[in-house]
């Protein structure tokens, strides 16, 4: 509920019943929210969660309560985070065309190539199209950068990150 509504309600509650400053309660709620969301994102195990909160210096009873809170709510937190995540478009199709201007009135012998791309995307059952134009040298640079990024995904470091994201 805190993920959707924020920390305004607990702060208003603290002013009247807890006799604690609003700033202290707000920082505590934000810290707790951060701890639970990051732990849920990574789906860390019970021992890892206990190690994470052990360094905070809380009592054993509070550590057990935090662990139980995490275990009870991690699936719901992941569901909420998936709902809040931006829905990015996905690739559907690509059409391309190469146009070459060979001459003009002022320049009789020129070669000016232009690559036109029509990118079809799917987003929430809707199809959209984007038209892009570029010169071949920029397109080659873009291809090199994408191939370098794909090569980077094969490293052990990136594989570990992707594995932890699931």
Automatic annotation (TrEMBL):
Pfam families: COMM_domain. InterPro entries: COMM (IPR017920), Commd2 (IPR037354). Residues 90-157 form the COMM domain. Signal peptide: none annotated. PANTHER family: COMM DOMAIN CONTAINING PROTEIN 2, COMM DOMAIN-CONTAINING PROTEIN 2. This is COMD2 protein.
